[in-house]
Hints:
The protein has helices at 5-90, 95-108, 135-142, 146-155, 163-178, 188-199, and strands spanning 117-121, 130-134, 159-161. β1 and β2 form a beta hairpin. α1 packs antiparallel against α2, α1 (5-90) runs antiparallel to α5 (163-178) and α5 (163-178) crosses α6. With 210 residues, it is mainly α. It has a domain at 11-58 and 112-199.
Amino acid sequence: MGDLKPFHSRLEDLPSKANSLTETGLALDALFAQEESRLNREDEASRLKAVYRAVIEQLQQLRETELSASRDQSRAKLILSMTELAVTAIVSKGKLSAITDCLLRGATGKQQSLGLVMVCIGPEGLPNGVRGISLSQLARESNRSETEIISGVEDDGCLLMSEDLFSSLISRLISDVREGKLHLPVSRDRLAQITELCKQKISPTIIRLA
């Protein structure tokens, strides 16, 4: 029987070792779960950064388009002004001059919308429902005012904001995602709430070209 004592000692140690291994396994599972969660949060933060870069690039392209439209409008005004001066110099101040003045006034009297470029977040929210938008271009193409365009876009359930406010919003979202307070996708209504908080910290500006 004396030879069996080492085996009895080992058997008595097995439950303790099993418990220790179980605790170690559970601890490792918890660590793996934490690391997986952290990596997922970083992936979502990276996705927000990528969306931000894409939208900023789009806004820059839209501003370049607005600059081009501004230059075209300035050239058109110059040509019309020169035409008016030439006609006035050639003809007397009679009926022809009055008719010419009326035509030129009709061509130049309405100031075209220029330079109103903003970020638009649709009902899909973030990250899939955001894009840059030129409200001025839409106004020119539809022969409506920018105010009408803004009302129509907002009536469609979209959020409009400046680049500065969008930057503040993305920064806040990235922080919340990394802390585990928020997960993608973020609904339009939730974004509206967070945007209101961001507005308290920043004065949004609209960049106009004319």
